[in-house]
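User: I'm writing a short methods note and want a consistent example. For Inosine/uridine-preferring nucleoside hydrolase domain-containing protein, I'll paste the sequence; you return only the structure tokens, no commentary, since I'll be parsing the reply automatically.
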Amino acid sequence: MIPPGLSEMERSHYETLINFVAINNKRKVPRVVVITDLAKDYDDLAAMIVLKELHRLGVVQLLGFIANLMPAEERTRFGRGALDSLGLERIPIAAGTSGFPRSARKKHNVLQYEFDCEFMATDARVKQACGESGEDLLRALCNEAATDSEKKLTLVLISSLEDIYTFSQKEPDLLRKAVSNIVLQGGYTISKDGKLEPDEAANNNRYDFDAARYFHTFMDQNEIPSTVYTKVAAFATPLTSALFAEMAETNHPLGRHLRKVQVAQDLSFYKKSCEPEPGDRFAPFMDREWFLKNKTDWFEAQKRKADQEPAPPPEGDEVIPYLTKVIVYDALAAVGASGADALEALKVLTQTNTAPRHQIVGVAGPPEDPGVDPEQMGTLLSALLKGSLLSCPPQGPS
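Assistant:
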């Protein structure tokens, strides 16, 4: 079950997972449903790749995906093709909402690289695999789960909360009965009296902050356990562009796509960070200095040249050789879907601030608590990302 081509440390994580599944063969395997904005950023696809491997190993059971954020139909085609290439032809994926409230005039600016891939499924293939809307797919999965306590769902929410908010308004009793755990990528705080308060700075909350606020209250009032993986945890666990190069070398189309998009996306991100007006950046605080510190090794390279004249910051494409740090926010939440028992076996989390039902992985300071063991989590993600592609059937020539 361990694919060839992994390092000794990466193999050790596989051994941990295989032994964990064998020893705990009577555990309730998390039954996972994912709401994601595939193709917007490379970390959504990375999360799918991680979940595929956890599914193959028996750590989780994947039940379905909902692709939201305009154009949701294109994201569904992207996801259908990705699932098929991973050998998950029977896992359904359906189109969700635009990601924004209907009353809003907001739009997502689709960037050129988002759907520039070799694995987009046809509309016919999408309909053949799942002819339902995202809402109908979620309702069907919840109806099955609500009738049997052994079949309750783990929701992995790694995009706009518009879909789950809308569903919670239409089907509050069904959602309450069907869901036993929620894992989010985003941010919330826990007030002194234990109430959840969404972080408006978290991108997935910003699409519709009223929806985020309502749904966090819904989780809290209905006592649904949750864990949120924040950007603090993600930035404590940087992967490398070398890993993405290795994934491309597997000759799997998703590996090739991730490597190409990693460069294109981060270059676009860098150019936005150089905008003089804070409002024109991805987030006001994400300026050029922030980007060079968190997403590149440019400052480290300057230290290695201490005997030379200080170089000016790179302009445009000049930053590409320094794009060595890869942040996969959503992939951490994918790991989080494994369940508390699996996470304990993997030793990827450290103690965090917790309430009885809700856990924050990655607390902003001071003092800052990343909530993860960076080396353990980083090696696990590296193992699962590479191993997931290496364990797929041969994909043929590129």
